[in-house]
Structures are given as C-alpha cells and as structure tokens.
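Let's do one together. I've listed all components of the complex below, 676 residues spread over two lines.
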Amino acid sequence: MHHEPMHVETDVLIIGSGGAGMYAAIEAARAGCSVLLADRSLIGRGGATVMAQMTVAVALASETPDHWRHHYEDTLAAGRGLCDERLAQLLCEEGPECIREMDAWRIGWARKNGRIAQAFAPGHDRPRCVYVDFLNTGPAVSKTLRGVITRTGGIRKAGDLLIVDLVRVKGEIAGAVALHLASGCAVTIAAKATILATGGLTRLYRRNSASANMGGDGYALALRAGVALIDMEFVQFFPIGHLAPRLIGMDPIMWDPFRYKLGGRLLNSEGEEFTARYGVSEDGRYVTTRDVATYAIIKEVEAGRGSPHGGAFLSFQHCSEASLREAFGPVIDRLAKNHIDLTRMPVEVAPIAHYHMGGIIADERMMTEVPGLLVAGEAVGGANGANRLSGNAITEALVFGRRAGRSASQRARAMRVHSFQAQAARSALDLVRAEPKQGDINTAAMIERLQGVMANDVGPFRTQAKLTRALSSIEEMMRALGERPIGDSGAFDLRRLEWFDLRNMLLVARAVATAAVARSESRGAHQREDFPEMLPAWQFNQLARWDEHGITLAKTRAAMHAAAQ
Amino acid sequence: MRAIAKLKIWRGTASATGRWTTYEVPFEPGQSVLDGLRWIRANLDPGLAIRFSCINANACKECMMELDDQTVYACTARLEPREMILQPLSNKRLVRDLVTEIAPPAERLLK
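Okay, and this is what the predicted structure of the assembly comes out as:
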C-alpha cells in the first residue's frame, strides 16, 4: 500500500523558519543557492521569534557610546564562566550589522529624535536594547524576514513538513527524511548542506513561553546523527512569566518591557520588595538578572510568602494612568478585556521555561562536527554559557542564521553532485510509512506527564533525588512509547505527530537530566539544592552524546577554543 | 456541581463522511476554547485534530476555526458553560477535523 516517497533536491535544506532559519535562507539564496525552507508548522509563524515581545541587545551606539567589546564582556559575565567565547564574540561583533540590515528592510525599530532607541535591560552596563513598540519586536522581525524571503527568489517554502531524521552517507549529512503532515506523505530530501534552526526545548516544561513546536527537535536530530550537544543542563527560566489572573491572547513573558520602562515592583505576599534578601537591591530600578530573580521568587514561595497561585506579585500601582497608557499603548485595552486594571491591582508572576542555553556544538562558521550539518539560532549551544543575557536571543538568531546561510552556501557551491542515497534513508522511511497502529497510549497525556516531570524534578531547583526520579520516569515513558509509531498514516493524525514528538522530547529530556545529575554544583540557571556553591573545579562544559547505551558525558572547556586558535 | 462546557465538534476527513461528536469539558472562568480542545485531547481523545503552535499568545494565527458559525481564533475565544459548536473553516480545504489548509499556496509542499 506504500506509495513511493516524494523526493525533493535542494542545495541547502533549512529546518525551522524562525528568525535564524529565515535569515539563513536569505543569505544562502543571495549567494545563488537553491533553498528549501521547511517548518513543521507554518512558515515564519511557529517558532520562538514571532513570540518574542521583548528587546534585542546590540552595541549600536545609537544613543549612548558603546562598543561590541562591552556587550561581549556583559555576555561573558552573565554566562558565569562557561561561554564559548568564539560564539559570544561573533554574536556581539556582527549584531550591529544585522540590526542595521533589518532597519534597511524597514522593520521599524523604535526611534527617539531620529535615532534608534536603546533601552536598558538587566545585566547590561548601558542602554543597549532595540525594540519595536508595543510588544511587537518578534512579530516585526518575523514579518520583515518573510517579506524579504518573498522578494529574494530561489527559496522554496514548505510548511507542515516534519523532519523525522537526518540522512547520513559516508560520515556526512546528505539530506533528511520527513513526514508531510498535511497529506501524510513521506518525503525524502537530498541536500548538499542542512541547517538545524529548530530553536530550543521549552516545550519540555509545563509552563513555558514558547510555541508547541519547541520540543528540542534539532537536538534529537543531531544526537541521532552522532553530533554532540553542549551545556544541556542549562535551561533558562524567565522569572516573571504571567501566572494569574488567566490572561488569554498575550504571551506570558509580556511584562518585561514594562519593567524596563516603568520599574514595576516585585513584591511578596507581605507587600515587601524581596530581591535585596537575595543580594540585589532594586530601589525602583530593574537590575536583577534572570537566574537571581528566579531563585528569589522560588525561595519566597517556599518560605510561605508567595502569591495565591504560587508566585510573586508584580505591581505597577505606583504608576499614573497616563504613564501606563503611554508605556503600554493598546496593550492596556487587551488587559482590560482580561479584567486587569494595573492602576488597581498587581498581577501574579512566576518563573517559566523560556530559553535553552545549551545546544548543538558548532564552530564560528556554524558548522557542526559532522560535515554537511550546520546549526543556527537558539539550537546552537555555548554562546550564552550558564545564563543568557537579556536581549541576546534575537541577536543570535540573526547573526548565527546569517553566518550559517553563508557557510552552507559555500559548501553547497563547492559540491558538484548530491551524495544522498535512498538506502541510507530506509530506516527513517520505514518509521514514517509505518502501518496504522492503534496503540494504548494517549500521546497528548504523555506529553503533559513529561512536562510535569521536567517542571517538578528538572526545574530551576534540582537535587540528586529529584533528577534520578525524573530519569526513571523518562525511561519508563520511553519503554511505553515503543519503537514503532502509533496512529494512522493519513493527513494530520496528531497521535502519529506526537509519537514522533515524544521520540525527540524524551531523548532530549534524558540529555538534560543526565547532564544535570552530573553537575554537582550550582551555576547560573543550574541550581542544585544539594550542592549550593559554584565551584571553580566545575568551570567546565559538558558534552553529551547518544548511542545504544544511552547518553554519555564528557568534560570540555568551550571558553578555551578561542585561546587555542 | 461543576459547570461544564459542551463542545460539539465536527470530525472527519471529507465533508460527505463527517460526523458530530460532543465532549464535556470542566469549565473554569477565563479559559480559552483552545484550552478546552487541549483538555479533550489529553483526557478524552488524542485523535482530535487541531492546529496551533503558540498556545496562548495569538501570535502564530494558526488556530482559526468556526465557533457558532463565526470565524475565531480558538486561543482568544472564551470557553463558556454552554453548548459551543466548532467546525473547520468552511472556505478552506479540509484536512482533518478542525484542521484546514490555511497556508498560502506558495508555502505548501504540494501546490
């Protein structure tokens, strides 16, 4: 009953169409390559970029003197000694070019007196963050890049295309096997270069600020293709994710820009500002970095001083109605529809999974250790060390995307023929074309269970006991999932899609928990209650690899790569 | 007694062979219709097909469907403790259940 798979050939395959994937597509197409831009969701809609309501850190020196080296120093300090300095430098040094190019593409960066405005954000030594009002930074980045892609030519777009596995031929990546969700068809793709631009893994957590697509697909594809991941234990929790009252139609990380603008006060149930208790006094200024604020909120809740839903209060009641209207613009009306009046009430906020510092190890060309495979954006590991500085995520999406597109085009243009072989695609194709199978698991429920395990036992606060318990739950779910997909082979069967999702999510969850068990210290986003100190002996990065025996770890020093070259 | 939202949902892969299924969802004030649909999938029927990615932000614009004959985003339409009738968009090609082909033709693998 199996039809032959559809076969597509392209110079460059890009997996994921957020900011990194779209910038990579533009750069590769400008260099004369044919590009297939694939996304499991719709093009330019489903990743993290479109949801980024915040700001973009870049040493533009538009309003205040600045130099990329200052941005670089802040990035390294936030990373708590673990940044890959080559990648951090690339991010900071090339950020201004990308931001100016976006400006030329008419993104509409907010301006003051004709100059691009730059806001102050925690962890930066000066105002450095550009934005698009009001809460429109990510949507504007996404829309601008979508427009450029349409004008550029040479880019074939394919939404609803789930990449199931990479195809490896003679030690190099030669393409991929995919499931076309809208039809249920199997697809093979021959590519001279493949870029993973799949974002992070926040979907592994119950409360998260990213889309349902960010289940760590790229990390799993890389692990199964023999590529190492770095820093997998470092999951960034955004401290003031919206918790209550229920707010719909708004991203839960929306409060941050208003803290920049208005200095919203973070309070416990006794109405006290409490961050000073944890070493950072705010005095109306918003200076507490993400790892410290997350720690402070969770400790207040543990001490019985949390808000009713288990977080902290964020109050703008000290601000006048006029200043709220000026800062929030039309957002005030959207809040009113949710029965939230900031002049009269605080909201409740709590840490929410937001970003992944770890990821696929790459050099400054964005090449992984396996030829033919590149990576871009949040999927890259190392640039941000143990804790990402506010505003660096969109910057790295643009800079790493552009660089990956360029490197991929160089490789593709140097190759005369495709190395793809149908034989090498067979095992992945067998999975995609598996016979219909009922199965006795509820995939949607299993995803919720995994999200609960990760939130409870692999969250911001960890212990040996919790992490070990998480690993045994993950292994139990892996056994229950089995080796063969459930669901049918027709169009848009979510049971089959979620079976493939769980295959990736469980593998990636295991990598995170395994790396977290091993790191017996507290550093940045990885806090161990049983090892509360940051230890000089742990100024190492951990590499994770996967084989039939499971995840194996090795120590490395990403920061040393720069010195060695 | 807890309030219930009754979601009457069109199911199928072709208009001629479709059917209606009604699900009862525990109602909590403030929830979205998408919250209700996700509850059904995790608790009653994982086979129910819906399209969404951003969940709550109204950023991805993927969860369009018809609620009581009006086009809505399921993530911003409020769940209510009554019968609510959900159908796929009538002006788009049906894929399955509440999922339709909403991508512009230039963004589809198969034109």
